[in-house]
Amino acid sequence: HVAFLRAINVGGHTVTMDKLRRIFEALGFDEVETFIASGNVLFSSPSKSLSTLERKIEDRLKVSLGYEVATFVRTAQEVVAIASYKPFPAAQVRTAGAFCVGFLAQPLDAAAKKSLTALASTIDRFHVHDREVYWLCEKRQSESKFSNVVFEKATGARVTFRGANTVTKLA
Fold first, then answer.
1. CB-based burial of residue 168 (10 Å sphere; 0-12 exposed, 13-18 middle, 19+ buried)?
2. Whose CA, among 46, 62, 68, 70, lies 20 to 30 Å from 9?
């Protein structure tokens, strides 16, 4: 499994990857590894329920760290499929300033999709597939008005974004 953690190191909080590994090991997970110091944790668990794993991890992180950390879990096979998915033409991805994948707990409903579509701009394009949102920014991300906060306010859904290159490396 891969756990994508949102905002693990924000607001003056710093969690070392060693501490994060220990928290996951204390949950009884095996083969725990962190990938890049941005809240990506690989682990093994016999549990088949991703939502149960997400709640278990979120609950332990809140107790251990003292603040909420939204968690989005995918199987290794799902991460491979996400990395292989091509929502935009390859030429557009090559010339883009940023190409990111947003991880959701549940697929967006029709109203949330409509709200996301309304956020598209001359530089920002979106594509929704299952529990992921693909964001293509034709310029640098710093030039975009789009962010996690904007997404969550518009859709009412929690999300965490990763660069597509990071997702490919995880796959």
1. middle
2. 46
Distance CA 1, CA 58 (A): 15
Backbone angles phi, psi at 35, to 5 degrees: -130, 115
pLDDT, tens digit, 9 for 90 and up, residues 147-167:
999 999 999 999 999 999 999
Give residue-wise pLDDT tens across range 128-147.
Answer: 999 999 999 999 999 999 99
Query: Burial level of 147, CB count in 10 A (0-12/13-18/19+)?
Result: exposed
As to burial, measured by CB atoms within 10 angstroms (0-12 exposed, 13-18 middle, 19+ buried), residue 55 is middle
Tokens describing residue 161: 């974004």
pTM of the model: 0.94
